[in-house]
Amino acid sequence: MRLLERMRKEWFMIGIVLAIAGAKLEPSIGMNGGPLKPEITVSYIAVATIFFNSGLSLNTEELTSALVHIKLHLFIQIFTLAFFPAAVWLFLQLLSITPINEWLLKGLQTVGCMPPPVSSAVILTKAVGGNEAAAIFNSAFGSFLGIVVTPLLLLLFLGSSSSVPFTSIFSQLFMTVVVPLIIGQIVRRYIKDWLERKQPPFGAVSSSVLLMIIYTTFCDTFSNPSIDLDKFSLLLVLFIICSIQLSFMLLTFIYSTRNNSGFTPADTVAVMFCSTHKSLTLGMLHCVPERISPVHLLIKLTMCLC
């Protein structure tokens, strides 16, 4: 019985393991163009579901108060789109003299230039009782900023320039993030009493959607034949990712818990997830060189899971 209770409590972590294992066994099911059609079900439906779910579960007052928390937003965006890529670049200068595969290092730098995650930061912040409204705002706002800032960062740190489908990414963000959030808020007005009485499992719904995103992303990665990496480099880089992630989370925790920071414990949770995790679901792969893309996908997902 204890084992079953433990498994029930840790169902999300077990789900991650099963999702990755399933993707490894048969990646063709969830790859782009496969039966699950993740280019539609994940890029649009899954992300829209997460933000509709958030709009339905959040009080309007919480969203409104989050909008005016300027200090919190500035810290998250500056850390994510300035400090993070610069710190990774400095660290990679040291790693460049090692025998680690150069495309892994470039993939790591590419991840460092990505905006905050659209879905995972919101879900993880909600799961541990953090400031979900602040996570929603910074995920959305950071993604819109990333349309412009990420290509510039890639040009600065990697010397790679590319044309960015600004209109399509902007419209995708608007339709999958902003519109579902507003619709969720409108629907909440009419069924607020029912929601408070029944208390639907909003967190479980969002976490389940995230498992689908994880599964399809690994399917896309494992199905790519161009990933040819030696195990030493791969394991070493995965260790480096975990180290960077934990170090940055500790750094943001120390800063946001200072007496004069002005952040509440709930704000600290949002800061830690939004500042140190990276975008997973949107079409920013258009901004990176083709040869980096599969490596970038693998590293990006690992960084989002740490």
Fold and architecture overview:
- With 306 residues, the chain is mainly α.
- The chain has a single domain (10-305), classed as Na+/H+ antiporter like fold (Up-down Bundle), CATH 1.20.1530.
- It has 13 helices and no strands.
- The protein has helices at 2-9, 11-25, 38-57, 60-67, 70-95, 102-112, 120-127, 132-158, 166-198, 202-222, 231-256, 265-276, 293-305.
- α6 (102-112) crosses α13 (293-305).
Quick take:
The protein is mainly alpha-helical and 306 residues long. It has helices at 2-9, 11-25, 38-57, 60-67, 70-95, 102-112, 120-127, 132-158, 166-198, 202-222, 231-256, 265-276, 293-305.
Considering the chains and any ligands shown, give keywords for the structure.
mainly alpha, 306 residues, 13 helices, globular, 75% helix, Na+/H+ antiporter like fold
Q: Total helix count?
A: 13
Order of helices and strands: HHHHHHHHHHHHH
Largest sheet: none
% residues in beta strands: under 5%
Spans of at least 5 consecutive residues whose pLDDT stays below 50 are 286-294
- How many DSSP E strands? 0
Based on Cα principal axes, name the global outline.
Answer: globular
Instruction: Estimate percent helicity.
Output: over 70%
Structural class: mainly alpha
What layout of secondary structure does this protein have?
Elements: H1 2-9, H2 11-25, H3 38-57, H4 60-67, H5 70-95, H6 102-112, H7 120-127, H8 132-158, H9 166-198, H10 202-222, H11 231-256, H12 265-276, H13 293-305
Helix pairs in contact: 2-10, 3-9, 3-10, 5-6, 5-8, 5-12, 6-13, 7-8, 7-10, 7-12, 8-9, 8-12, 10-13, 11-12
Main location: membrane
InterPro entries: Na+/solute_symporter_sf, Put_Na-Bile_cotransptr
Family: Belongs to the bile acid:sodium symporter (BASS) (TC 2.A.28) family.
